[in-house]
Amino acid sequence: MFRLSLLCLLAGCPGLPDSGDTDEPDTDLDTSDAPPLTDLPTGVCGPTPYDWVPLDQVGTVVSWERASELDLSAQAIRGVLAGAGLPADLLDIRYDVRMYRFRYLTQDRGQTVEATALLSFPETDETVPTVAWLHGTTGFMDECAPSAAGIEGAAGNLLLSSMGVAVVSPDYLGMNGFGPASENVHPYVIAEPTAVASLDALRAAWRLTPELSGVDADVTRQTILFGGSEGGFAALWSELYAPWYLPSADMVGVVASVPPTDVVGLATRGATVEGATSLALAGALATYSDWYGFDEPLTEVLTDEAPYELASTLLPAMNGSCDFGDSYSDISSVETVYTEAFRQAATDGTLADFGPWGCALTANSLATAPFERISDTPVLYVYSGADDLVYHQTNRDDIPRLCAQGYDMDTIECAGAGHTEGAASSILLQWEWVQDRLGGVPMDDECGVPEPIECLPEG
Description:
The chain has helices at residues 74-83, 150-153, 155-161, 191-208, 230-245, 263-272, 276-292, 310-318, 340-348, 355-363, 392-404, 419-425, 427-438, and strands spanning 19-20, 61-66, 97-108, 111-122, 127-134, 166-170, 218-228, 250-257, 379-384, 409-414. By secondary structure, the chain is of the alpha/beta class.
């Protein structure tokens, strides 16, 4: 959860929002040279295959509003960083930031749905690239959306735009931060809805930007996908879908820190060793049941015995509180979370074959995606050497598999760092890598498992 929540110290910014609806200009993205969208499989692991909604019917802006209460000056952002004890020159904070929020159309299992996002710009008339900032786990319902969380939820936008990029931050499906409520719980660690909603947020932002009279920056479609934890998952899968779904984006790079790429491996860990991974993967399995519409009951994988009755209570808890984990904070064994059959499959290393659940775990693991990667976007893969949530060994083990598939990938292991610490402490290294990609500097490191390094700069 790399959200830099230190920015919440400045929650009292003045200003009242303007608002308005927008009629979409005829600026649809050119898809004439793109591979057919029908090449992307639907209905994987359970539901009947469905047809994709045509791309000219998604990524349209439903409504937007100025979010001037979220604006911050470069001086204020530097002050927050200094107040947090970070070196004043750690990052190149140069620009005041201008903020908007918008609702847009995307699609979910062949139907159009509305989603929400934040959009920010540096106060400049220069040409600037676009960053899709993809947030880590904040919850699973509308009230947990970053766009509903004020300055804290806008932290990624504020920091990155202050360094000279336009930033689009989708809330993800099931997490509408404003306007009409979502109809479903957020599909957690599920590739298709995560990637599709993220790419449609970019499409909608590019359509909206010319309508915003207060924006002087010349925003290009040169794009960086940038995210940590669940956001790293979103960034990597968005890159995988982009050649079909958003082909006119000029994908320059992907930054994925502490990403859950091997979901089978994480489920194996969570079902055999009690820890942070155990409840997180149980939450993923609950939303798999909901999103895929499995005929099999959740009791095949999660226990329904007192005192927690997870198979019955977990999904309602996720859809009822952003801090639902507090209800299960005293869980002390995997036996109280997972069924004996699921735990035995994890012990035997056969979770990938465990009915529809194994299919979903496999389909949402990057190295076993249900379609071939046809892109070649450079990737920065950062993980934490002592991560007990996205268990660090699953990251180490996944790197050779991704390298073998042709990923052009630089890798960083933050020595001894926990989950959040590794993502946050390596921000300077991440930003330097982004600057190199935007500057056309070629990748020169060989893809492979790295030697651990200290990620936080001295001083």
